[in-house]
Structures are given as C-alpha cells and as structure tokens.
Specification:
Elements (H helix, E strand, L loop, with lengths): L2 H19 L12 E7 L4 E4 L5 H5 L7 E2 H5 L4 H12 L8 E9 L4 E11 L5 E7 L1 H23 L2 E7 L4 E4 L1 H7 L7 E3 H5 L4 H14 L6 E9 L4 E13 L5 E10 L1 H23 L2 E7 L4 E4 L1 H6 L8 E4 H6 L3 H12 L8 E9 L4 E13 L5 E10 L1 H19 L3 E6 L4 E4 L1 H7 L3 H4 L14 H13 L2 E9 L5 E12 L5 E10 L1 H15 L9 H18 L3 E8 L2 H8 L1 H19 L4 E6 L2 E7 L3 H15 L3 E3 L2 E3 L3 E8 L6 H17 L5 E3 L2 H8 L1
Parallel strand pairs: 29-30
Antiparallel strand pairs: 1-2, 1-6, 2-3, 4-5, 5-6, 7-8, 7-12, 8-9, 10-11, 11-12, 13-14, 13-18, 14-15, 16-17, 17-18, 19-20, 19-23, 21-22, 22-23, 24-26, 24-29, 25-26, 27-28
Helix pairs in contact: 19-20, 20-21
Length: 698
C-alpha cells in the first residue's frame, strides 16, 4: 500500500469516527481529540503520530513507542483482559477491530471513555485512531449521580454536596453547604486547611483515622464529627458519607460526598440517653429492677440491674421460664407470688406482694416487693405482664432493728430518757418512771432540771453542754430521789445525736442505779485499806500515804517524821479482862490518838497494839512535841467495862532524811527506837540513833 492508499484509509477511518459521533445524542460541536497510531503485532508495540491530538487523548504516551502492556496498565482492571486480548489475537488479513474502553489520562488525572477503530495495513501492521468520548458519557454519569443525590437528599434531608481535589487540596462546595457550615455567603472553594481548622479538637484524630481507612477500599466511609459554625458561634454535629475516585494504581485523586447537619438528632439522642440514665438511676436508687412476662410463652425477661440485684452476673437480658423463677422463691412465699402471676390473664388492677428469694452470691434469703400490671393490645386482649421488683432487704432489716430497739427500750432495766435540743423530754422508758415514781405524762415536755427528784441543776447541765460540744457523749454520776424517798446514785451517759449538718438534734440519757454498787465498793475499800476494829488506816494505806509524804519531802528538800507507838502490858488486859475489853481499849486509844494528832498527820494501826503516825513536812522538834502529847493523852484513865485503866506506851521516832531514805528504812529506824524506849523502862520516848541500827543488826 502506497502513501496515497494509506491517506485514503486514514480519511476513511476519520469519516467512520465522525459518523460514530453523529446522531441526536452526540455533541454538535467540540468533538473529542483524535489520536492516530500504528500497532506492530509481532512485538506488541504502539507507535503514535506526534502531529495528531494524541497528547490530549492519551497523554504523554503518544510521543513515543509504547508497549501494549504499558497502555493496558492505564485500562481499568475489569476491562484490561479484553483490551489486551483484542490486540494480541489480531492477525494480518483479519477484519478491522472496534472497541470502547476507559483509559486513564495522567495529564488531566481523570478517566476517559475512548472509542478505538483499527484496520490492517499492507505491511501487516494495524493502523487506527482513538477518540475521547468522555464528554457525552460524563454528562450521563453526572446526571445519574445528581439524580441519586437528589433522591438521597429527599430521604435524609438537609444534605449538601461537595468534592475535594487532592491535586490542590481545595473543597468545591455548594451554596447550601456554605450556609449550613457557616462560611461566608458566596464561598464556593474552601481550602482543606480552613475546613479542618473548624473541626472540634477532640474529633480530629478520629476523623483523620477514618478517612485514611476509607482510602483502602471502595465502600462508603461515614464520618461523624463536630464542626464550628462561625455564623452562630456554636458547635454543630455533622455526618459525611464520602467516596473516592482513583487512578489506575488505586491512588485516590478526588474525594466527593455530602454533609448533613445532624445536630437536632444528636441532641435528641443525648436527651434520650439522659432520660434512660435517669430511669436507670431511679431504679438503682430505689433498688428496683424492671421485668416482663410473656403471657403466651410464660417467658420471664429481666434487665441488667434486676439481674445484679438477684446476684446473677449482668451480661444482658435474662430470659427464663417463670417456673424457674418460682423455684428460687422461699417455699412459704411461693404460693402468694404464683397467685399473682396466674391471675395475669385477667385485666385487673395492679397487684403487689412481698416475698423472699435466695441470693446465690450473698448465700442468704433477701426480701423483694413485686408490683405487676397487665398490658393489653389494641383489641383489649392481655398479652404481657409488666412490672418491677424492688429490693426491700434493707427496709426489712431496718424494721427488724427498730423492733428490737423498741423492745430493748421498753424492757431495759436501764433508765432511758430522750430530749430535744432544748432539753424538753420527748420519751422515757418504763424503768425511768418506775425508779423515780413519775407517770410518763407527767414528764413529757418538761426539762430534766425541772424534775425535783432528779438532782440535775441548770449549772450542772451547762457544764455537760460544754463537754458535749467537743465530744459525742458525757459520762458522770447524778443523785436522785426514788419513789420511796431514798437517795439513789445514778451513773448516767448522755449522748448527743447530730443531724446531717453536724448540729445537735437530740440528747439520749442512759442511767444505771449504782447506789448499792457504790456502797459495796465503799465496803470493799474499807476492808482493803482500813482496820476493821479501830477504823484507822491499815498497813497498806499507811504505806501509800508514807510514800506520798516522802516523795513530797524529797521534791521540796524537806523532812517527814514517823512515830512508832506500842502499848505497854496490853497482853495483861486481854488475859485478865478478856479480848472484848482489849478491843474496847484499842478503840478508845485510836480515838485519842486521832484527836491528838489532828491534821498534822495520819494515825494508823499496824496490827495488835502497834500504831504508826505519819507526819509530812515535820522535823524532829514537832515530832518530839507530838510524841509527848500522845504519851500524856494515853496516860489519862479510861473506863473499860467498869474498870479504870491507865495505858502507857513506848514511842520511837525516825526522821527523813536523817534516819532513812525510804519507807522501809524509816520503819526499821522507828521500830528500833521504840524498842530502845521499852529497854529504858517502858512509858518513854526514844529517837533513832545509828548505834541502834548496828545493835539491831547484831
């Protein structure tokens, strides 16, 4: 084929392509560019005419020899195999080829719809032309897309369309979107950085992550985030489904979608959540769990809190047969609960009952209150039993504690009185009335200090109030007069009961009659520290008093005296007149010794006919005078059982710190001096000297 033949074939192809563009749907003007090429089937290579419009049609590929595989890489995957097969299977002498396919144009970064026609040439190659027919196809695609968006907008409402070109990172937005998101009127292009700056800071990371994830496949990605609406100075909630246009390598080049203002929906959802939370909080605070019973299937359904309340792990909704529920109810309460559930088919008034149910976690019976109401359909036919179960275990336990407390209050032998903050009596127990002889109506409304049998004066009360201000209770003793007119000693504890603000609201008095207890304690104390015959301090109390006197003298660098007195010939009185006379003599001597010593010291009986006088802060001279007075007092005649008796005594004196540093040393010194007085002829007084200690040791 010569050049004239090839030119003739070229004109024929152009005419065919032109005929293909003709028709009522083809654009009358601006046909797509024509690319002329030659295909060598032996090495699968294309060569393009550099003078044709191929640059606009196929991009840079038309300026060089390009392999079939390279061109095929710009064809979509779903069309690639057919495109390659058309050229690979073509042989010289076969009919011309005609095909329509899509081709990626890297110069304009878009997909083109291309119509290609090829005819065999004389040299065995294939020559042909390709035409970009995207304009007419794009029009159909855009029309279809907008039809879809219009239909979608009608369904969802308040939806605005936009596109984002990755080449310049600028959003192309519609007028209604500008108004919706609060950009200035007339804005049609928004840089991505300006738009992103209005996204709530807490939503940016989540939004970016979803956009990146959406680029991995062709499924729609839905973003929800908060956007600052500058015209109204508030955050709005938006939802944006988005899609991607990709190049042959799958890289996104354009993102498009629409944005919907869902602020009202989000606010409604928030209100609904708050309402659910309030309902759940009310159930938790009231310890109530809701449930339903399907009357047809007898299936019992309960929610999470009802499960937790029953000791069942809360992992959703429980669905069990009603018989299983009844099996966990206390046998004594089972019939009452079953009766309510069995009557559920009758549209009756709400029913309620209390029952006990086994709690598997706490391993005990707990108390429940059930309230049930029948639900009917539109025809008035019962279909479900609805209600709630309330945990009343605490209430029952509180009632039991109150019952026990009331029983203790009524039957306690302790005196109990309760007053308000102004000390007006509001309650007393029977033991209080019985001991003091009051009737309850005579006491209520009065103050404790106004009861003439309760010796609690206003001054005493003010002192108690001061102590109760810093403490929660006061303990003390109060004298009162019982109904028989006898004085009784009451050990009372007064507790201040405070309200939720920490202010005193009530006072509780709890008293015990300790009159006999104190008498017994006094008797025990008398036996432990006093001589049973003379009522003088005994050896134990004398030792304690002496230690205290010596400690005081040691601290003040002072002196103290111990005077040891032993009666002379006392044995003769017992032997001649009897022990009763001897006891009378000892009592009289004890009386005279106390009268003589007075406040200068303590007189005590060591045992038998031995007496000890302890005189704190006294030196040798006062001790000598007291010893002389004791001897003279005892020498005065005494009448014992009709007999005139004259008693003499041997007296020894020891001085601290001269004669000893402690009680034991001073006692040995005074005893040694007393024996020296007996050796000197009895009825005499001797002072301790060191020579006596050596003699006593020898």
């Amino acid at each position: 084929m010569g050049k004239s033949d090839e030119e003739s074939l070229r004109l024929t192809l152009i005419a065919e392509l032109a005929a293909g563009r003709s028709g009522p749907e083809a654009p009358a003007e601006h046909p797509g560019p024509i690319c002329e090429w030659q295909y060598d089937h032996r090495n699968a290579m294309f060569r393009f005419d550099p003078d044709s419009a191929g640059g606009a049609c196929l991009g840079d590929a038309c300026r060089q020899a390009v392999a079939l595989q390279t061109i095929a890489e710009r064809v979509p995957e779903d069309e690639r195999a057919g495109f390659i097969g058309t050229f690979q299977h073509w042989q010289p002498g076969q009919a011309p080829i005609r095909l329509t396919h899509r081709l990626w144009n890297p110069r304009s970064s878009r997909w083109m719809d291309v119509r290609t026609i090829g005819y065999p040439s004389a040299d065995g190659s294939l020559i042909g032309f390709s035409e970009d027919i995207s304009r007419s196809n794009d029009s159909e695609e855009i029309l279809s897309r907008y039809r879809t968006l219009l239909v979608t907008s009608g369904v969802f409402g308040n939806i605005c369309y936009w596109t984002l070109d990755y080449a310049d990172a600028v959003y192309q937005v519609s007028d209604d979107l500008v108004e919706q998101i609060g950009f200035p009127p007339g804005t049609s292009r928004i840089p991505e950085s300006d738009f992103s700056s209005r996204i709530h800071p807490d939503d940016i990371a989540h939004t970016v992550a979803l956009r990146r994830a959406g680029t991995r496949d062709d499924t729609a990605t839905i973003l929800e985030y908060r956007l600052w609406k500058a015209t109204e100075q508030r955050w709005i909630h938006v939802r944006s489904p988005l899609f991607f246009v990709r190049d042959p390598h799958g890289k996104p080049v354009t993102m498009y979608g629409f944005t919907q203002d869902v602020t009202e929906q989000k606010e409604a959802e928030a209100r609904l959540r708050r309402e659910h939370q309030r309902i759940e909080s009310a159930q938790i605070l009231g310890r109530m769990g809701t449930w339903t019973l399907d009357l047809a299937t007898r299936i019992f359904r309960s929610k999470a809190f009802a499960l937790e309340m029953s000791g069942i792990p809360a992992n959703g909704e429980l669905e069990v047969n009603i018989e299983e529920i009844l099996s966990e109810v206390h046998p004594d309460d089972r019939d009452a609960l079953a009766n309510i559930l069995d009557r559920a088919n009758q549209p009756i008034e709400p029913q309620e009952c209390e029952f006990r149910r086994w709690h598997p976690t706490d391993r005990r019976w707990v108390h429940r209150r059930l309230v049930a109401q029948v639900a009917c359909d539109v025809e008035g036919k019962p279909y479900e039993l609805q209600g709630f179960t309330q945990d009343i275990t605490r209430q029952k336990e509180t009632e039991e504690r109150l019952r026990v407390s009331a029983s203790v209050f009524e039957h306690s032998r302790s005196l109990i009185m309760i007053t308000d903050v102004d000390r007006r009596i509001i309650q007393v127990n029977p033991a209080f009335c019985e001991l003091l002889g009051y009737a309850e109506h005579e006491i209520i409304g009065r103050t404790p200090d106004s009861l003439n049998r309760l010796k609690l004066t206003k001054d005493m009360w003010h002192g108690i109030i001061e102590k109760l201000t810093g403490a929660s209770y006061f303990s003390g003793e109060i004298w009162a007069t019982d109904r028989a007119g006898q004085d009784v000693l009451i050990a009372v504890t007064i507790s201040a009961v405070r309200d939720s603000h920490g202010e005193i609201a009530h006072f509780i008095y709890v008293g015990e009659d300790i009159t006999q207890q104190r008498a017994a304690e006094a008797q025990i104390n008398q036996l432990a520290y006093y001589d049973a015959l003379t009522r003088l301090p005994n050896r134990t109390l004398l030792r304690e008093h002496a230690d205290a006197a010596l400690a005081e003298a040691r601290q003040c660098y002072g002196e103290a005296a111990l005077v040891f007195l032993d009666l002379d010939y006392f044995k003769n009185v017992n032997d001649s007149l009897g022990h009763a006379a001897g006891d009378q003599l000892l009592k009289e001597i004890a009386r005279r010794l106390q009268a003589c010593v007075g406040s200068m010291g303590m007189v005590g009986r060591l045992g038998g006919d031995e007496f000890l006088i302890i005189m704190p802060s006294v030196g040798i001279e006062p001790a000598r005078r007291v010893a002389g007075q004791l001897a003279e007092t005892l020498s005065q005649p005494m009448v014992i059982e009709g007999n005139n008796l004259v008693a003499t005594s041997s007296i020894g004196i020891a001085i601290y710190p001269r004669d000893g540093d402690n009680y034991a040393e001073l006692m040995r010194a005074a005893d040694a001096a007393m024996y020296k007085a007996k050796q000197d002829g009895r009825g005499t007084i001797a002072e301790f000297a060191p020579l006596m200690r050596n003699k006593a040791r020898k």
